[in-house]
Design a protein that fits this description.
Layout (H helix, E strand, L loop, with lengths): L19 E5 L8 E5 L6 H7 L1 H11 L1 E4 L9 H14 L17 E3 L2 E3 L9 E4 L7 E12 L3 E2 L4 E3 H7 L2 H10 L1 E7 L7 H4 L5 H10 L3 E5 L3 E8 L2 E3 L6 E3 L13 H11 L6 E5 L7 H14 L10 E5 L3 E5 L2 E2 L3 E11 L12
This protein binds fe (ii) ion (FE2).
Length: 354
């Protein structure tokens, strides 16, 4: 019997040869860097498990990585969800974070794997880093496009060191000196309930969480709750030492609401009862023009690119902010956060706060 010809089998996912191409996704924009296979059938998770150090150094250098075009087991929904969880595990060295103290509702798709926020599809979510108002936040944030929207639904990104550089030095100085005060009200009939935000029905658990996380709380009648969080506005990158505009001062400010919602909230609830609002750390008001200036700095750094089904992204959550564009059709984007980091309490000449 004639011998079958030997088929040269490529060890897909091996570390011997360079199986991927690395390049900026968009000409003229520093972010994101796209990593694409040079061969067919390359499995993302096995490639990643053989290239952990390379991924880490690419992330340190480029801050925003997009893995595109890898084999996706037929690209069905469940296989993409499972693959994402395995990729998060492979590309992380620290534990995953739970979404407590949330600002929007979420569902779970695995062990600390969530869908990107359930928020009206016709609205934009502005650029923000995840958890700037927590005392412990994630160093890494992962996204996966499982079901791509019919139109829109992009997850734009922006470099918050560049945002910091764009902000007027006088504005930065005031924020760096005073920090940001986040005020939230729950169970007044608008926004999320404290039960959803803190994922418990028990007020004692809310108090324990607040005490452990530097959140001042105040119970009002009828089981309503007000919280205050005082945090620095600017953080220093733990690796590079560069300054980062790492806060939600503009994101949660009352002037950032659309005018109809803002007017309804103010007439129904008054400023003291708003679901959320921000102030300088000393409790003084932030001028809407200052907020508009901060939004324009973010907008100038905003990079928008279309998702492809099967895409997985890994961002340095301290350096890279993310957003969401309006969309039509069904959309499932997953998110996970890893590598909890508790920052130092002060920045520069800033107040002694978290
Ligand atoms: Fe987010």
């Amino acid at each position: 019997m004639k011998k079958l010809p030997k088929i040269a089998r490529r060890r897909v996912g091996g570390s011997g040869e360079d199986l991927v191409r690395v390049r900026p996704l968009l000409e003229g924009r520093a972010h994101p860097t796209v990593i694409e296979p040079k061969v067919d059938g390359l499995d993302l998770v096995s490639w990643a498990s053989n290239n952990r150090e390379r991924i880490a150094s690419l992330l340190t250098r480029n801050h925003a990585l997009l893995f595109r075009g890898f084999e996706a087991d037929g690209s069905n929904r469940q296989s993409l969800i499972d693959r994402f969880e395995r990729f998060v595990e492979t590309a992380s060295t620290g534990e995953r974070l739970f979404y407590k103290d949330r600002s929007t509702p979420r569902n779970s798709y695995g062990d600390r794997i969530y869908n990107a926020t359930v928020y009206p599809p016709d609205q934009t979510i502005r650029l923000h880093n995840e958890g700037t108002y927590w005392v412990t936040w994630a160093r890494k944030i992962f996204f996966a496009c499982v079901t791509n929207a019919e139109t829109g639904g992009e997850t734009p990104i922006g470099d918050v060191h560049a945002v910091y550089e764009r902000i007027d030095p006088e504005v930065r100085k005031e924020f760096e000196a005073k920090g940001v005060l986040y005020v939230r009200n729950y169970n007044d009939g608008f926004g999320l309930t404290w039960q959803n935000v803190y994922q418990t029905e028990d007020p004692n658990e809310v108090e324990a969480y607040c005490n452990a996380n530097d959140i001042q709380f105040e119970w009002k009648d009828g089981g309503r709750l007000r919280t205050r969080q005082l945090r620095p506005a600017v953080r220093v990158h733990p690796d590079g030492g560069e300054k980062l505009w790492f806060n939600h001062a503009a994101f949660f400010h009352v002037s950032s609401l659309d005018p109809t919602t803002r007017d309804a909230f103010l007439s129904e609830l008054g400023e003291d009862g708003l679901p959320y609002n921000t102030y300088y750390g000393d409790g003084s008001s932030i001028d809407p023009d200052t907020i508009a200036h901060i939004h324009s700095a973010y907008e100038a750094e905003k990079v928008v690119f279309r998702w492809q089904t099967g895409d997985v992204a890994l961002y340095d959550n301290m350096r890279i902010a993310h957003a969401r564009q309006p969309f039509t059709g069904e959309r499932l984007t997953l998110v996970a956060m890893t590598e909890p980091y508790r920052g130092p309490e002060t920045v520069g000449d800033g107040p002694d706060i978290r």
